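Aim 2, interim progress. The first record below pairs a target sequence with its structure tokens.
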Amino acid sequence: MRKGGEYLGIGKLPYSILGEILSQIESPGTDVLVGPRIGEDAAVIKIGDTDYVMLVHTDPITEASSRIGWLSINVAANDIAVSGARPSWFTVTLLFPPNTDPVHIQKVVVEMKKAADRIGGKIVGGHTEVSPGISKTIVITTAIGITKNNQYVRTGAAKPGSLVFQVKPAALEGTAILAHDFKEKLIQAGVDPTVLMRAESFIEEISVVEPAVKLAENGLAESMHDPTEGGILGGLIELAKASNVSLEIDSSSMIVREETKLITEALGADWMKLVSSGSIIGTMKPEAVETAAKLVRESGLEFSVIGIVKEWSGFDVYLRDKGVYYNGYVREELSRLIEEDRSGV
């Protein structure tokens, strides 16, 4: 499909089209502190005359075929957590294709409940139906959280001179999905089945609720973002765009597992562009780094400084160790691989 000369493949809309759409649905008013903007993970709404705000985010699971109930809750929850609140309530829309086995429906719901219980949230409503015109299950989740007015964190709050950080490995979600959905192709490419088994288990690690909330509660994060579609690189571009800054990044300092490298190399994919729920990227003042690193590592998680924030310099992200500049939308690797697989490329 083409619109305005741009090809619309599977995945997020290009920023040029998305920006036009968002400009038509701006939400002015003193109650909406953060509305629909490129890169922002959640809307922030003031609660009356109180000192509290409500954070709201919606996300669909459309590409994975395994553990979609688990993914639906955790992915939406992560966006609330990196915005500074603990995700407390969820509503879920479940769309199933015709002739779906009721056992599958039950399995998805049980996974959702398990995921919500693990992070201390509750599923409070939603909608379920068998829908015409779809060939696989689609789950759309809205997550809600509440925090103090001075504690919410925006993607677009990065300031020049701050350091860019990463918590937890990149592409945990994408690696797990590829290991399951492309298993036969990966085995044919020579990837050891034990590598795929370990990679599939990464799905259990995609929550970032605890480290994100801790960083926010302790006032350590200047900005945070959940790098989903487009991977850690796409997330960094969104952070730069939302903050109107440029980021100089050392990709060799990024946290990534060997299983991710092996799987993406076998499929001819770039792990930096692979959907990355399970990681946090953000910025903080240099003086906050030592405390933040200690806080995260005491929880048994990885922390790395991967770059620095600069004044806008005509680009979004510069990978200085590779000498490569990025300015704008990058294609999500999972979407590309799925599209090529369906077309027989």
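The second target in this work package is listed in the same format:
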Amino acid sequence: MKNISKKVIYLLFFVIFVGFMLFPFLFILFSSFKLPKDIMAIPPKLLPTQWIFSNYVDAFQIQPLVIYLRNSLIMSLLVVLMTILIGSLAAYALSRTEIKGKKIFLVFLLLISLLPPVTIINPIYQLLSKVHLLNTYFGLALVITVLELPLAVWFLTAFFNTIPKSLEESAEIDGANIVQVFRSILFPLVKSGIFIVSILVFIGAWNQFLFALVLNQFEARRMVTVGVTLYITDYLVPWGVLSAASIIVIIPLILMVLALQKRILSGVLEGGVKE
């Protein structure tokens, strides 16, 4: 009887937790199919009285959403590429170098990522302006890479720590140099960690707003997170169209996370507990 009561309590808490997590998404999802009168109805209604798809059509017609999606995809992939390349080399160096205060350095590295972006946005803007990297994929990707590197180095260091040094020593005895060891032996062994970090970095880059707003202001280089806000005007907030655009933006991430959730969770846990 006690075990049944515990299961009921656990199930109840799970339902409540999932309900709180899913309600905002479901509300936006249903709002994207509603008429304006249903959205503004009092009391509010979760389900639309009449299902419409014009909000999704308007989302693509009012703003060049396809261009914004393309820009975000290109920029996010650039961030992933640079973060993995730089982060894996830095993580390998930290993992294999015996220095005092290594753990303190890793903690400090994570603390850097907690720095409020608004405090550094002005000098970064001035710097990119001087080197002519404003309104470019590479300029924005470079800035976001710096923001994502602490997380990547932290997790990848933990993965490199799980690889015995004897593998490298054996390869060096056979005549392999450090580049060959890293490329042919170590990199394949940490590919699961690199995959997890790539997913997390991609999500972080895709959801970036402040730097995307300030550094890429031209329509041809505007990111989708910024583009969604442009549906709002001084005189009108088209909640239905705005909801549809929001769903279009977050659906790819949701599908990706759902498809890869087991690998993401296992990688995060492994990277968080290893030294």
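The chain has a mean pLDDT of 84. This observation will shape the mutagenesis plan for the next reporting period.
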